[in-house]
Design a protein that fits this description.
Elements lengths: L9 H11 L3 E2 L2 H5 L10 H7 L6 E4 L3 H14 L3 E4 L16 E4 L6 E5 L4 E5 L4 H10 L2 E3 L11 H7 L6 H4 L6 E7 L5 E5 L15 E11 L3 E8 L2 H13 L6 E5 L1 H9 L4 E2 L2 E2 L11 E8 L7 H7 L3 E2 L2 H9 L13 E10 L3 H11 L5 E7 L3 E10 L5 H5 L2 H11 L3 E2 L10 H5 L2 H12 L14 H12 L1 H9 L16 H9 L11 H6 L6 H12 L7 H8 L6 H5 L6 H15 L7 H12 L16 H4 L8 E4 L2 H5 L2 H13 L5 E2 L9 H6 L2 H17 L4 E4 L2 H18 L6 E4 H6 L2 H4 L9 E5 L14 H9 L3 E5 L14 H5 L1 H17 L4 E4 L2 H13 L5 E4 H8 L8 H17 L2 H10 L1 H6 L3 H12 L3 H35 L4 H40 L1
Parallel strand pairs: 2-4, 3-4, 21-22, 21-23, 23-24, 25-26, 25-27, 27-28
Antiparallel strand pairs: 1-2, 5-6, 6-10, 7-10, 8-9, 8-10, 11-15, 11-16, 12-15, 12-18, 13-14, 17-19, 17-20, 18-19
Helix pairs in contact: 1-4, 8-10, 8-12, 12-14, 19-21, 25-44, 28-38, 36-37, 40-44, 42-44, 43-44
Length: about 1000
């Protein structure tokens, strides 16, 4: 049998690191994020699962690495648990014996596409929804997809086996798969096809690591649908049966019960910055609803008569269309949970009505049911009972899931899947294949290193389930009395109640993971929104500390809102993280990302984040325009910091366009301050409030009714955040905000005749997050302006509009420049894929980020501002600011590097003579004893980390002159920044050191002792 290994030896870590490089993680905290799947287990069952923390996580990027991993694991008999989207809840990825979690999601490429024979071979980590979109571009489509297609992977569905949309025509997932390639526990790579596939289907990684799968395809065609309501389950069942009897060419059949329909009607609307997003949501009748989907060219004319004959009624087309759009968002109803007790069963279609009757008769809690019909006259019923996992009653109500399984078994059905939690049901799940799988497992994995216990279960869980089944009537009686009412979440451990509520509501489905730039930039589950919600639950349970590292994880979010866009529950994710920024930094006094402290001081002193002088703010303005700028006007141009001091082509281009379009405007000049968004995301909301008040007052003095911005973040502030804060602060605010591209949409008839210099370039367009998805939802105006420039060959990138990828700027760039470069390169490669000469954008911060990323990744791509491109076509000579951006960034890059604990320690070592000289005489005397008194160095080691925070406030003013010199030596600064450092650095360090010293002290103390001994 395989060993239980929750910690690796140093030698084993070294070997694994040699194989995977940066694609391995041994951190204790990170490993905690890989201990669970989507299931929310009762506390009593969690205890039975035991320690499920792996010893390491590795990113398996190709088949060769999978082979190396297996050979390593076999050598030491270390368990290996393959993990993909982690979108199932049967315990298929729980490392109960520790070992190594093998994340296969990097293997997601399309390996081969055979259009003639309608087949595609893909990496096991390919996400179904992404694959479908790429196939649709080739006029092809998948035969069937799981309801969790936004996160589920091809290999994961093979490993789990299941039913999805399309299964009515094509069958279970296994029926749509031609072959699979697997790295066996022996290290051998084997191809499985035909009957041999039965040895690995549904085995949840217990027989090896799936590396690629070949799928059967169909020709793409737009899907049409008809929805119908039925007075009872019997009439709905009759309609489903008649569809089969009459061979109506339906592709997918799904259904739901009245309780689910009611919950869908009640589920909260999506919000954006706290405001409800108006969306058309048709009211569902509180009936049994069945949805029939089919390729639109098919003749399904007999379907309506079938519905009528069965006693049903066709619903309006808008309901069918809406239900089709909601295919992959069924868990939205969990917003009303916040937790669900799941029971998923397979029953004969002929027993659907009996199942509903028995459930209503025997189960006292509300049961929401969504079902799918599969080829072969079986129906999968996904049953969910709303509850709260925080309540002890959750333990008592959970056995009701077994009652539903029992009802299914009494009606010729079975549980949907086995896995760790239902391993005792495996023989019923696998039927004739069960013994074949057992024999194959013994043959290839005698040491049971592949995902041990997943197919056999843990004895305590098996025993518990056996007892629960034996005493099912008694457990059901108790469970039926163990419901909970509406759950109210209050503030706890300093966390707001609404955020706690969202953490427990989160379905852990993973929809927010793959497209999250913080996740794919850093690569680990802790960085994903799903991981952060999980952390909050674990922190409240006392299992994970809220330390600075975790605060940094929340702060590092770029605020792109891709998570909000993809969340099937419509949770206000980014808004929650924004609230926590203030909670952690301002209310608790924890450290923000260090460079933000320098920015904060610069904002208070000079009203900008670049540590430039306020009086230089308007120097970008061309002389010929200065005379045209009004002191007061109803329209005001707000340039923002980066366009004023760094990316000046943005500001100049915008002003030229507004002027040539005949728009009169005013400009605040040196009275303009930063919009404040850096302080909002830094958690320094007090600084933000001061900036906001200043900007609003100055705009009102200028008589502005409309503020026009070039920076999307500035637009977000003026359009959304400023009005909200003004209301909160009791300030008057009657200013409209627009992006210049919106304003110019109405002036294109004026501008178009003036465009005279053709560009003759292929342009890939980048949608900035804060103009589109995370801001005002503006997509067409910039496109129209760009297309109006003569000689532009316009190209959309793969991800565009609301699906556009983030540049990775602002927070990530300030926090981890190397990660930002990686994120930026992902987007740059999309432009490269379009054979673009130029990537065009309109956000100054995106411009800085892409120009840096292009340089760091050696990408030969021009990054140009939309306004500058358009203004050049008008005939204006607008200098390219790429070099200025790179020079300006180099200062911040070195400052960020300096503020890393190791580098701060190195600088402190240089300052040791001055620090010791500045200490009180008694302290200096004590220091000297280290050199002469044996054992004093050992006493000093634990003392100094505690003493440093007490000493530093008095030492820093005395040491500051030398510190400024040390900083200047390490950070190349322009003169204006050097001149300001004596004002900026003391306050910044005063805020930073209390939180940085715990990180620096352990590194500095031994070096201090060495210095004392040597001097």
């Amino acid at each position: 049998m395989g060993n239980t290994i929750h910690e690796l030896s140093d030698q084993q870590k070294e070997e694994l690191a040699d194989i995977f490089g940066k694609g391995v993680n041994f951190k204790d905290k990170e490993r905690h994020f890989y201990t669970h799947d989507v299931g929310a287990l009762p506390s009593l069952i969690k205890t039975m699962v035991g320690n499920s923390k792996p010893a390491a996580i590795v990113k398996v990027r190709n088949e060769e690495k999978a082979v190396e991993l297996i050979n390593f694991a076999r050598k030491y008999k270390i368990p290996v648990v393959p993990r993909a989207g982690a979108s199932s809840g049967y315990g298929g990825i729980i490392p109960t014996k520790g070992g190594i979690v093998a994340d296969v999601t990097p293997m997601r490429e399309i390996i081969d596409l055979d259009k003639d024979n309608l087949k595609v071979t893909v990496g096991a980590g390919a996400v179904w929804h992404d694959l479908e979109e790429k196939l649709n571009e080739e006029e092809l489509a998948l035969q069937a997809v799981p309801s969790s297609a936004m996160a589920a992977t091809v290999g994961g569905w093979l490993a789990q086996n299941g039913v999805g949309y399309g299964s009515y025509e094509y069958g279970w997932s296994q029926d749509t798969m031609e072959s699979a390639r697997v790295v066996l526990p022996t290290g051998e790579v084997k191809d499985f096809s035909g009957a041999e596939l039965g040895k690995i289907i549904g085995t949840m990684g217990t027989t090896g690591i799936i590396t690629q799968v070949t799928l059967n395809l169909r020709k793409y065609e737009k899907t049409a649908a008809i929805s119908a309501k039925f007075p009872d389950a019997a009439s709905m069942k009759e309609a489903i049966k008649k569809v089969g009897e009459r061979n109506i060419p339906i592709w997918a059949i799904s259904f739901l019960n009245p309780q689910w329909a009611e919950m869908k009607n009640k589920s909260p609307y999506k919000t954006h910055y706290g405001e409800t997003v108006e969306e058309h949501r048709p009211e569902l009748p509180l009936s049994y609803i069945c949805n029939f989907a089919y390729p639109e060219s098919r003749d399904v004319s007999d379907l309506e008569s079938v519905i009528k004959e069965a006693g049903g009624e066709k619903l309006p087309d808008e309901i069918a269309e809406h239900e089709t759009q909601e295919w992959f968002r069924s868990m939205k109803v969990k917003r009303l949970g916040p937790s669900f007790i799941p029971a998923e069963v397979v029953v004969p279609v002929d027993k659907i009505d009996t199942m509903f009757t028995e459930i209503e008769k025997k189960i006292g809690l509300p049961v929401l049911v969504e079902g799918m019909v599969t080829k072969g006259d079986e129906a999968i019923m996904l049953c969910f009972m709303p509850h709260s996992e925080r309540s002890f009653k959750y333990n008592l109500a959970f056995p009701l899931a077994l009652s539903i399984v029992k009802i299914a078994e009494e009606n010729g059905g079975r549980i949907y899947a086995s896995g760790l939690y239902f391993a005792s049901q495996a023989e019923k799940v696998y039927k004739d294949r069960f013994k074949t799988i057992q024999d194959f497992k013994k043959q290839i994995d005698p040491d049971d290193i592949m995902n041990p216990e997943t197919m056999t279960g843990k004895s305590m869980i098996n025993t518990g389930l056996s007892l629960a089944k034996t005493f099912e009537p008694m457990a059901r009686a108790v469970g039926n009395m163990s419901g909970v009412g509406d759950q109210e979440f209050k503030d706890e451990k300093g966390l707001p109640g609404d955020i706690i509520s969202h953490a427990y509501t989160c379905a852990q489905c993973g929809y927010c993971v793959n497209e999250c730039d913080q996740y794919y930039g850093r690569g680990w589950e802790s960085q994903s929104p799903r991981g952060k919600w999980f952390f909050i639950k674990e922190h409240l349970a006392g299992k994970m500390p809220l330390d600075q590292e975790q605060v940094d994880t929340f702060l590092a979010c770029t605020t792109c809102e891709m998570c909000d866009h993809n969340c099937q529950l419509d949770l206000p994710i980014e808004r929650s993280w924004m609230t926590l920024r203030e909670n952690f930094v301002q209310k608790r006094g924890m450290m923000t990302i260090p460079p933000f402290e320098i920015m904060a001081q610069s904002l208070d002193n000079q009203r900008n984040i670049w540590a430039s002088y306020r009086e230089d703010r308007a120097k970008w303005l061309p002389d010929d325009l200065k005379a045209k700028i009004k002191d007061k006007a109803e329209i005001a141009y707000f340039a923002g910091c980066t366009a004023s001091f760094v990316e000046k082509d943005v500001a100049i281009g915008t002003a030229r366009l507004l002027d040539d379009a005949g728009i009169e405007f005013t400009y605040l000049g040196d009275k303009e301050a930063c919009c404040g968004i850096p302080m909002l995301v830094a958690g320094k909301w007090d600084v933000f409030e001061r900036i906001l008040k200043m900007n609003i007052a100055n705009m009102q003095k200028a008589g502005a009714k409309t503020v026009v911005t070039s920076c999307p973040a500035c637009l977000l502030m003026w359009r959304t955040i400023y009005p909200q804060w003004a209301e909160k602060l009791g300030m008057s605010f009657d200013i409209e905000a627009k992006h210049y591209s919106e304003v110019l949409m109405d002036k294109l008839d004026v501008l178009k005749p003036k465009f005279k210099v053709p560009l003759n370039k292929t342009i890939a367009w980048h949608d900035s997050c804060h103009l589109g998805r995370a801001g005002a939802g503006v997509y067409e105006p910039p496109r129209e302006l760009l297309k109006a420039i003569p000689g532009v060959k316009f190209k959309e990138m793969e991800h565009n509009r609301e699906n556009a990828l983030c540049c990775g700027s602002v927070v990530t760039l300030i926090d981890e420049p190397k990660v930002a470069s990686k994120i930026g390169n992902v987007r740059l490669q999309e432009a490269v894929d379009q054979d673009a000469d130029i990537m065009a954008a309109l956000c100054p911060c995106c411009m800085v980020q892409f120009r840096i990323a292009a340089k760091e990744n050696n990408v030969n791509m021009e990054i140009q501002d939309l306004g500058a491109l358009a203004a050049r076509s008008l005939g204006y000579d607008i200098p390219d600011s790429t070099n200025e951006a790179l020079v300006a960034w180099s200062t911040f890059d070195k400052m960020i590097e300096l503020m890393e604990p190791e580098n701060m320690t190195e600088m402190m070592v240089e300052l040791l003579p001055d620090m010791i000289a500045a200490m009180p005489a008694p302290m200096q005397a004590m220091m000297k004893t280290v050199k002469y008194v044996p054992g004093m160095d050992a006493l000093m080691k634990p003392m100094m980390p505690k003493m440093m925070p007490l000493l530093m406030p008095s030492l820093m003013p005395k040491v500051m002159p030398k510190m400024l010199k040390a900083v200047e030596k390490r950070v190349p600064m322009p003169d204006h920044m050097k001149e300001q450092m004596p004002d900026l650095m003391p306050a910044a360090m005063g805020n930073l050191l209390p939180n940085m010293l715990p990180q620096i002290a352990p590194l500095l103390t031994p070096k201090m002792i060495e210095y004392i001994k040597a001097n």
